[in-house]
Write a structure and sequence with these properties.
12 helices; alpha/beta; binds 2-phosphoglycolic acid
Length: 251
């Protein structure tokens, strides 16, 4: 079902005690508030269980930032979708551009990860987005279509309906250079058309599509006001309650 959502992506930040304090601070700040969006925090793996136990997970969903592309077994250092689900986390961010770029995650690997996450009842927050050169060459529509098709389009309609998409232009991530609200709307509408061509207008209309890339308290209102922008995936500004809360309240 399409919903408004603001999701934080803490990346490789915060020790366990810092992360717990941040999550508890957010939990406290949201207490008694009626929210117009779902709130999710994407924490490091080792924080998941402690944070899920320390906050109201009906109000703040907990997400991992990755999962293994294998179900279980002799894969030293990996964390499976089942392990993530066992902590109380309900979401997993997959295909973030930093994973694609620095850890060479391919469309095929990501397809496997999406399947495993869904099989364990996790909601994938699946990231797509073009690099600057691709935008300058006018290939951004083509690039996101390819990323979606290669990793998601073998899913059944039922499975696809569980997926949240996050459009994150790589040139906007951590750079302070946000896409304009019009640029975001243009490509979100395009993404929805691509989804409609595969799964039909009803499912495409029900899909939650987030924007990510230097979203903050100043630009959030304009972005989420756009018809096809259902919320945001927030990096830097999710690392303090003071910066994250106004984004949640942008709806
Ligand atoms: P940013 O990161 O908000 O710091 O640009 C967004 C993301 O990478 O998800």
């Amino acid at each position: 079902m399409r919903k408004n959502m603001i999701a934080g992506n803490w990346k490789m930040n915060t020790t366990l005690s810092e992360g717990l304090a941040l999550a508890k601070g957010l939990n406290e700040a949201l207490k008694g508030k009626t929210l117009q969006c779902e709130v999710v925090i994407g924490t490091p793996f080792i924080h998941l269980a402690s944070i899920a136990a320390a906050i109201d997970t009906d109000k703040i969903g907990v997400a991992a930032q990755n999962c293994a592309d294998k179900e279980k077994g002799a894969y030293t250092g990996e964390v499976s979708a089942a392990m993530i689900a066992s902590t109380g986390a309900k979401y997993v961010i997959l295909g973030h551009s930093e994973r694609r770029q620095y850890y060479h995650e391919t469309a095929g690997t990501l397809k496997t990860k999406v399947n495993l996450a869904l099989a364990k009842g996790l909601t994938p927050i699946f990231c797509i987005g073009e690099v600057l050169e691709e935008r300058e060459e006018g290939r951004h529509f083509e690039v996101v279509d390819e990323q979606i098709k290669a990793s998601l389009f073998d899913l059944s309609a039922d499975d696809f309906s569980q997926v949240v998409i996050a459009y994150e232009p790589v040139w906007a991530i951590g750079t302070g250079k946000t896409a304009t609200a019009d640029q975001a709307q243009e490509i979100h509408a395009h993404i929805r058309q691509t989804l409609a061509a595969r799964y039909g207008a009803a499912i495409a209309g029900d899909t939650t599509i987030l924007y990510g890339g230097s979203m903050n308290a100043e630009n959030a209102k304009d972005l989420v006001a756009k018809a096809d922008v259902d919320g945001g995936l927030i990096g830097g500004a999710s690392l303090s309650v003071e910066k994250f809360l106004p984004i949640i309240e942008a709806f």
